[in-house]
Specification:
The chain is built from 18 helices and 14 strands. By secondary structure, the chain is of the alpha/beta class. The protein has three domains: 148 residues, 3-Layer(aba) Sandwich (Rossmann fold); 205 residues, 3-Layer(aba) Sandwich (Rossmann fold); 33 residues, no CATH class. The longest helix has 22 residues. The model has no long low-confidence stretch (mean pLDDT 93).
Length: 433
């Protein structure tokens, strides 16, 4: 970890951090493009071959789809407490996402006789990538399937990489089932994305692919994005904390370590309003790391990508937060709501000492599929609206026709489109002349 003055941080690290999404991906893209091309050409056979190569799982094409019996058996492999936790988290996620729908459709009158409005329709099918190879994330299966189900998507196809025995983690199967998955396949990596984008003999083509994954999954989603819609850019996890002297440095340290244990590439930043606080946070982090089970991952992440920056004041901290646009942003200050209106760029904000990021990751109901790499400047997190599309409509009566006719004909002729003008005028005389 590095304790830095704002000046040093600005000069040595901030420029690189602001461009962190522009990682060199050329080698990955070449590898992924080859996989996508192969799946497109050979279908199920390619999926089975890549599963054997990357996941060390050997099975036939007939076993690509997970059966209903396997899903039921997955429930038997979990403790009752674990199933209840998944169900309660799902209930909270449903409650939150139902509120996102709001007004479903609307119409207004712009001028007399002219009604315009918006229809809302769900996508017909979506594909969910649920990580589940070396580490299983049932929470991600919930976060992706539930808002799609609430939006009204009929076909929800989940792909998750199998373990070496060919089985998907039971918790992922149970979560996908609770969330409303209609089909589940034991496929991971770029090959899963290719299967969802183009379809194979077994895996159906979908209209949109969502869900977090590694750099190969992200690259595959970008490469197929001309063929199928994809969700937001999501890479290694990020956390930025704004902290003042009112905070317990142990909480700051604990929250940084919690994110650092995700990935050696996780980015964690604490913006402290005093030098004293900065070094107390550092001391706490060193102490807590000694007892962390996954400390090898967290230590490497913290050594390479953790910054404790001493800022002049809270205004300076807000400036940094809006520049960096982190995935998760915590406000651990005496009056956190005073800062909220000034924050513009973050995937999700956690307000006050009791609002752990882990609640957002698992159980509170908000979605944890969020933009990383600074994309929070322009992207929102996954929501019900990620699975809906809008259709504009227009309806004119005779009065509305008269009110719009002259304006429209004038503008059409101004742009040199006489056919447009004629299409309007033909409705007045009924003969197209």
């Amino acid at each position: 970890m590095k304790v830095l003055t704002a000046k040093t941080f600005d000069e040595r690290f901030l420029p690189k951090m602001l461009g962190r999404a522009k990682v060199e991906k050329s080698v990955v893209f070449r590898e992924v493009a080859k996989i996508i091309r192969d799946v497109k050409e050979r279908g199920d056979r390619a999926l089975v071959d890549y599963t054997r190569k990357f996941d060390c799982a050997n099975f036939s094409e007939e076993k690509l789809r997970v059966s209903e019996r396997e899903i039921k058996n997955a429930y038997k492999k979990l403790k009752k407490k674990e199933i209840n936790a998944l169900r309660k988290a799902a209930e909270n996620i449903r409650t939150f996402h139902k509120e996102q729908i709001g007004r479903k459709e609307w119409s207004i009158t712009t001028v007399e006789g002219v009604k315009v409005g918006q229809l809302i329709r769900p996508l017909s099918s979506i594909g969910v990538y649920a990580p589940g190879g070396k580490a299983a994330y049932p929470s991600s299966a919930l976060m992706c399937t539930i808002p799609a189900k609430i939006a009204g998507v009929e076909k929800i196809v989940v792909c998750s990489p199998p373990k070496s025995d060919g089985e998907i983690a039971p918790a992922v199967l149970v979560a996908a089932d609770i969330g409303g998955a209609t089909e589940i396949y034991r496929i991971g990596g770029a090959q899963a994305v290719a299967a969802l984008a183009y379809g194979t003999e077994t895996v159906p083509k979908v209209e949109k692919i969502v869900g977090p994954g590694n750099i190969y999954v992200t690259a595959a989603k970008l490469l197929v994005s001309m063929e199928v819609a994809v969700d937001l850019p999501a890479g290694p996890t990020e956390l930025l904390i704004i902290a003042d002297e009112s905070v317990d440095p142990g909480i700051v340290a604990c929250d940084i370590i919690a994110q650092a244990e995700h990935d050696v590439k996780a980015l964690t930043i604490a913006l402290a309003t005093s030098e004293s606080l900065a070094y107390r946070i550092e001391k706490e982090m060193r102490r807590q790391l000694k007892t962390l089970p996954k400390r090898s991952i967290a230590r490497k992440s913290i050594r390479n990508n953790c910054f404790i920056v001493i800022t002049e004041d809270l205004e300076s901290a807000i400036r940094y937060a809006n520049l960096i646009a982190p995935e998760h942003l915590e406000i651990l200050t005496e009056k956190p709501h005073d800062l909220l209106d000034k924050l513009r760029n973050a995937g999700a904000v956690f307000i006050g000492r009791h609002s752990a990021v882990a609640f957002g990751d698992y159980s509170a109901g908000i979605n944890h599929v969020l933009p990383t790499g600074g994309y929070a400047r322009t992207f929102s997190g996954l929501s019900v609206w990620s699975f809906l599309k809008t259709i504009n409509f227009l309806e004119c009566d005779a009065t509305g026709y008269q009110n719009l006719k002259d304006i429209t004909v004038t503008l059409a002729k101004l742009e040199g489109f006489d056919g447009h003008a004629k299409s309007v005028l033909s409705r007045g005389n009924g003969n197209g002349k």
